[in-house]
What we know:
- This is Methionine permease.
- Pfam families: AA_permease_2.
- The chain is mostly helical.
- The protein has two domains: 414 residues, Up-down Bundle (Amino acid/polyamine transporter I), CATH 1.20.1740.10; 124 residues, no CATH class.
- Helices cover 54% and strands 6% of the residues.
- The strands form four sheets. A three-stranded antiparallel beta sheet has the order 3-8-9, with no helix packed on it.
- A hairpin with a 2-residue loop joins strand 1 and strand 2.
- Helix 4 crosses helix 19 and helix 6 runs antiparallel to helix 15.
- The termini are far apart.
- The N terminus and C terminus are likely disordered.
Amino acid sequence: MADSNAPLLQSRSSYGSTDKTSTRHDSIDSEAAGEIRPSRDVEDDVLPETSTIGRNLSWQSAYILVISRVVGSGIFATPGTIVQSVGSAGLSLSLWIVGAFIAACGLAVSLEFGCMLPRSGGDKVYLEFAYRRPRLLASTLFAMYAVLLGFTASNCIIFSKYALFALGVEATDVLSKSLAVGLLTFVCITHSVFPKAGVKIQDVLGWIKIGIIVFMILSGFYVVIFRPDTTSAPLTHQLAWEHLWEETSWNWGVIATSLFKVFYSFAGLDNAANVMNEVKQPVRTLRSVALTALVTACGLYMLVNIAYFLVVPIEEIRGSGELIAALFFERLFGEKFGRVVLPTAVALSSVGNVMVVAFAMARMKQEIARQGFLPYSSLLSSSRPFNSPMGGFIIHYIPSFLVMILPPSDSIYSLILDIDGYAAQLIGLAVAIGLVKLRFQRPDLKRPFRAWMPAVSIRIAMSCALIVAPFFRPPDYEGDVFYALVLVSLDEGGAEVERDEVAGGDVCFGGWDDDHEAKVFLERSEETVDVHCMQMKMKKMLSIIQVRDMLETYRDEELYCNLFGNHKLRMPSTSTSSPTFTAFQILGSAIACQAFIGAS
């Protein structure tokens, strides 16, 4: 039996091995005087390893790996969507502060685990060490999460939108998705075939990104201090107290959805933990890099949000979506510079984020393949022929590719934010509870970093609050879809159109025409809007309907339909003639709800 008082910092060199005995989770073999001691196999399971690639990541490379993961699409795209949801600059800035505080609490949990168990895999290793019963349950659940939801899609989408914006090309659905998929393909091939060159490229792009953000911040404050002759005067009144909270939405469901997006922007502070086998002096590097990146990210996020409010009117911010940074540059530097040069730089910074996320996720998924959870594990877990986790990149590529090409482009960004944000809260909650569990069961373990217990408690409480948040209805049924989702399959060959005397206009819930497009007739209008469905080749269309009350679906007269757009429709009550329902299902799972969330 392993000496429980011995530090867990031993070294082995089995990276790339597919020997499943090295990753067994055997039962606890003794319980003496109430003390629970793991077997040698369990203890060995979390001992650090040295990668066959070697420990080649310096402090600088590890820092870029973290800060490029954290500061990605969030700083360029999320502020606009948050203001759209909460309505005011005051609440938006407050959420960024709260998000930074909660991120620090979550980082404390990850640092205690990472310094105690310095081995590649991150949360996978922590969950396996904390939850050994039932056998392999933690490994299986995390493998499902990492493989199915661990994709690199959001920043590929941001890259395509900003690149097309800079080139002055209309961002059609096909073109946007093709460009995003092209970036993903380039990144995976580069890291797989030219691993050392890939690290150097992501280091350079990381410093370029930091330089761009610092330039944005200085530009915003330059307008206020020197008041140059620009197309936009400084909008300092937007940050005045009397205007700071105007049009604020205090609904907890809306606030929680926005917090998900803030947390997504801070996600990745523990990114170095996923590649600990390749980091020089792993414990010291992890601790210093993560804390430095946290301070850097907090400062950059707050200052760049203030810069946005100083330059761009809040009405434009509410309607800008992911292009808020492009509007910032255009108003500050004019159309030529603002619409071409700097959006190109923003697109390049998104490339850096995609590279560091893929770099870390591929190694995590290679660890999953080593345990035999995936088909062809011996092939996918190998580091041949380029001394890189090519199999991990293949596993990473497939779900990322699918999540980019299947949903409609208009809703895909918010879809990704909400899916990843919800699942990450579940994982974070399990890790935090596991830390508390080990404090009582294994107080003898060497902990180079100890998390403050109130911080752990705050992390647990916030995770619980955010997990139940989708069960709160947003005001006026606007924003993201909440707990009640209805899948309605409509008759083939077109939808039934009914006269709604209450609404005073024709209402159509959509259907298939010869071009396989869903047509929506707006309330009190003869205007027809074409809305593309997610599954274009299906004979019948599945539309998502946000219902007012899950228990009174058929009795409500004002159901709002979201056909992957923002068009509100009025449905006739069931006492009159109504569209034909050929299938009806309420998805009670909160994760399923998040999978269909649209832009708020």
